[in-house]
């Protein structure tokens, strides 16, 4: 892909402070997009913005907790005000808290629903009018909403029921957006990674992490960049090509 493929585009990436979001933001910036970096850890976002600027790109740091509706709306509003448009949104921020439902603190379920579902919905709702405007008048004649789901959005496993529920919900939302707006040039895509080496699993209770290490320890997991490559592929297709859904597992991962 040419370095200037996304020149003139503005991309907002949630969860840009680590893992898949960080790699994706850097990749989009490398293709010429101006990027709004959204997450709670401002120091990590500043580091990333520094790297992007050193490489000749443009980045705006937005410290925000997208589980708050107003914060999500303001993140979108600031992107518009300071970067002058918005034609790509990567709804990536997420949390995965696993383990048997019987033992799970209900707060873990609340965190997952509030971020994986409501956070994504708040960002999408605030961004929709601007994405539609960009599809009509913007640099590419098309706009992209990319929702980061998971294999867990396709396959339910014993021990991850509520995470499964949040990612299935995101998949349904993504398809609903696609059907409603595709005729107006807004592509809504779902990317479903398998096991990827990021900070995600580290937020689990220790007893859950032990099980995860047993399951994934011997596996060569995907790198965040592998998923960033898929996301950049999705948003750089010609206007008439909409990649609706992509499931990407490590070769070693059966389920
Ligand atoms: N890693 C995998 O194996 C895997 C597999 C399938 C799907 N996924 C999905 O990929 C996405 C990215 O995860 P990752 O693997 O890259 O994990 P990660 O490294 O833990 O990244 C999660 C990102 O979400 C941000 N975040 C968390 N709470 C937030 C909040 N309230 N407001 C704004 N941002 C928030 C975090 O930043 P702050 O803490 O700075 O806010 C961080 O940047 C998630 O949706 C996850 O479900 C991952």
Give the secondary structure arrangement, pairings included.
Blueprint: E1 10-14, H1 19-30, E2 34-39, H2 42-54, E3 59-63, H3 69-83, E4 88-91, H4 106-137, E5 143-148, H5 161-181, E6 186-193, E7 196-197, H6 206-216, E8 222-223, H7 224-235, E9 245-248
Bound molecules: NADP nicotinamide-adenine-dinucleotide phosphate.
NADP nicotinamide-adenine-dinucleotide phosphate is lined by residues 14-15, 17-21, 39-41, 44, 65-67, 92-96, 115, 148, 150, 193, 195-196, 198-200, 224.
Explain this structure to me?
This protein is of the alpha/beta class. The chain has helices at residues 19-30, 42-54, 69-83, 106-137, 161-181, 206-216, 224-235, and strands at residues 10-14, 34-39, 59-63, 88-91, 143-148, 186-193, 196-197, 222-223, 245-248. Helix 3 (69-83) packs parallel to helix 4 (106-137) and helix 4 packs parallel to helix 5 (161-181). The radius of gyration is 17 Å and the shape is globular. The model has no long low-confidence stretch (mean pLDDT 97). NADP nicotinamide-adenine-dinucleotide phosphate binds at residues 14-15, 17-21, 39-41, 44, 65-67, 92-96, 115, 148, 150, 193, 195-196, 198-200, 224.
SS class: alpha/beta
* Count of strand segments: 9
- The termini sit apart by 31 Å
Categorize the overall geometry.
globular
Run of helices and strands: EHEHEHEHEHEEHEHE
Identify the bound ligands: NADP nicotinamide-adenine-dinucleotide phosphate
Count of individual helical segments:
7
The whole-angstrom Rg is 17 Å
Question: Oligomerization state of this entry?
Answer: single chain
């Amino acid at each position: 892909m040419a370095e200037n493929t996304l020149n003139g585009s503005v991309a907002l990436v949630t969860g840009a402070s680590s893992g898949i979001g960080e790699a994706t933001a850097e990749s989009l910036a490398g293709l010429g997009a101006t990027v709004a970096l959204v997450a709670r850890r401002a120091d990590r976002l500043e580091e990333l913005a520094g790297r992007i600027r050193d490489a000749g790109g443009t980045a705006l740091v937005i410290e925000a907790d997208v589980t708050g509706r107003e914060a999500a709306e303001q993140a979108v509003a600031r992107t518009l005000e300071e970067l002058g448009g918005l034609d790509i949104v990567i709804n990536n921020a997420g949390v995965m808290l696993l383990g048997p439902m019987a033992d799970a603190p209900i707060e873990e379920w609340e965190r997952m629903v509030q971020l994986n579902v409501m956070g994504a919905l708040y960002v999408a709702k605030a961004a929709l009018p601007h994405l539609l405007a960009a599809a009509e008048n913007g640099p590419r004649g098309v706009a992209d909403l990319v929702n980061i789901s998971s294999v867990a959005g396709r396959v339910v496993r014993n021990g991850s029921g509520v995470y499964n529920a949040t990612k299935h919900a995101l998949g349904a939302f993504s398809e609903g957006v696609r059907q409603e707006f595709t005729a107006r040039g807004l592509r809504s895509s779902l990317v479903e990674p398998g096991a990827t080496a990021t900070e995600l699993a580290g937020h689990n209770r220790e007893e859950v992490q032990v099980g995860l290490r047993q399951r994934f320890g011997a596996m060569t997991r995907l790198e965040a960049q592998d998923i960033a490559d898929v996301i950049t592929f999705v948003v750089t297709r010609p206007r008439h090509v909409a990649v609706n859904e992509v499931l990407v597992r490590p070769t070693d991962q059966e389920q």
